Amino acid sequence: MAKVRxxxxxxxxxLTELVRRSKAHWGYGSAFLAAVAPELRIDAADxxxxxxxxxxxxxxxxxxxxxxxxxxxxxxxxxxxxLGLLFVEPSALGRGFGRLLYRDAVxxxxxxxxxxxxxxxDPHAAGFYRAMGAVAVPVAAVLADGRPAGAGPGELVRFxxxxxxxxxxxxxxxxxxxxxxxxxVAEFNAQFADASLDRxxxxxxxxxxxxxxxxxxxxxxxxxxxxxxxxxxxxGRQLGWGPEVEVYDGLVERGPxxxxxxxxxxxxxxxLAGAGLPLVxxxxxxxxxxxxxxxxxxxxLRYESKAAAHALFGRILAAGGHxxxxxxxxxxxxxxxxxxxxxxxxxxxxxxxxxxxxHGVGGSGTTVVSPAQVRGAGGARAVxxxxxRGPLLVEEYVHGPAEPGAPRDLTYDxxxxxxGRVHRVGGAVMDVEDGGxxxxxxxxxxxxxxxxxxLLDFGDAVxxxxxxxxxxxxxxxxxxxxxxxxxxxxxxxxRLTGPxxxxxxxxxxxxxxxxxxxxxxxDRVELGARLPEAQLDELCEELARGCAELxxxxxxxxxxxxxxxxxxxxxxxxxYSGEVLDAAEALxxxxxxxxxxxxxxxxxxxxxxxxxxxxxxxxLRVT
Length: 623
Fold this sequence. Notes:
Blueprint: E1 3-6, H1 12-24, H2 30-35, H3 37-40, H4 46-49, E2 52-56, E3 62-71, E4 80-88, H5 97-111, E5 116-121, H6 126-131, E6 135-136, E7 157-161, H7 168-174, E8 179-182, H8 185-190, H9 202-207, E9 218-222, H10 231-239, E10 246-248, H11 259-263, H12 266-273, E11 279-281, H13 286-292, H14 306-318, E12 330-333, H15 336-348, E13 353-356, E14 366-369, H16 371-377, H17 380-385, E15 392-396, E16 409-416, E17 422-433, E18 436-442, H18 449-468, E19 473-481, E20 487-493, H19 498-513, E21 518-526, H20 533-550, E22 553-558, E23 568-575, H21 578-593, H22 604-617
Parallel strand pairs: 4-5, 8-9, 8-11, 9-10
Antiparallel strand pairs: 1-2, 2-3, 3-4, 5-7, 6-7, 12-15, 13-14, 13-15, 16-17, 16-19, 17-18, 18-21, 19-20, 21-23, 22-23
Helix pairs in contact: 15-16, 20-21
């Protein structure tokens, strides 16, 4: 396994030769190399003064060298440092040593309090630094020997990165270290026995792949379904994990039980629970409590009920202090006949209505019905006949902002630690279509300015109530924005969520590449064809390269949907700007949909055209 270590003074001459070989690899002439030789030399005294480190391969052979050099804060914008050296042995290029050294430099810079890392890159390395997340800055170019840039060789490109340590909530979530991630999505859903949920939990087993992102630093993943062999390798490279992440997959192909299956394998259970690492589930369940040795307190989850959450929201608002929050009315229909009467009365008054099951997830069991839709269906009774059986909540529909494209669905994420302290993670904008969750975006500036304070303050208040009620773990609060610039809370989720996964990835990328990432999770990206596993791996590698060329990061989040009859992928994309983020998502969707074209014969279009022409000439109707 490759690793980074501090350089030794007695290695100075050998490291100088490595740097010269690396520079010469790009075809520079001897005269130029002689001119820049002083800039490339490493003296014994430099090893400590310039904070020089080396990258070794698994056999202990030095393959690369980097320096991190602090600078005076002459511009008054905080501590600065320079990546003075980053060179890789030519024979080792493309094997990850440069990425390892760069990420180590960003991490060390953050630990030293550096807020701006400067990089003057050889033009041949500019693509590498862009892919690493450094941002090109428009300054006058300089040469390696300090002369103004011209048309000659050696012209440098200036980049900057903004190192940042992990946020406080990451350290509080799992102690800032690795954790064991248990993908018990189906197990969590099954305990509510909601009629709107798939009995076989197929969707839940796919969604369990998000266990890769339950914290920024997984030590092991426990997954119900078998995942592609190349998937975790690509995810690990994108997120800077070492090869030591263990994957235990294929444990439950059908049915909800994952924790009990692990417990039925004493060696596996002992390895996971006895490693001294936190066990992080999708959500709390009685079987998980047995696996983790955690007391099971079922009342912790009572606010997973949409009716109980609505009552909780009402109590918080009754206490005052949240002027930007408005609570939609909600009625519990004890019988279907009562639900029919409520829906018919609201439709007759010209009001749209939200019909909810008690514990639906991801929009399952939630239906928005307009008066026109009630009439078109043949009445309220006909509408309800199409819905899953079970208790229904009837809720006032909140009309959204009039501005096209204005955020409509927002969410707050946070968690309650074991001591009962509430940790705010942040706000996100969700992609919701016809009441169904499709994805979310997190990052700086995503939540509109007007909504930030009411969303965060109300989410904190919900967290305090959950803590007082005994809940410990992750939670979110979902909102819809109304036309008057207010937020209406709609439900809590006492578990991890799609947005929480985006927050984890944003925190990890900020630590690896510099602060400021926007991250979008898209639950379903349609594939043009079902692919064999090897071709799926190739597609994901291609998407990673394509996004890197845009200055974005691609991470496959849910690979197992690719093997369904109607194939799809769950994906994460990240970038420093909304424009690049949108472009990356568009690229991923277009290339994913285009994979079916590879199965068309090259001359298929020509054959179709000739066939159509022949039929037309024969007097046949072509459709």
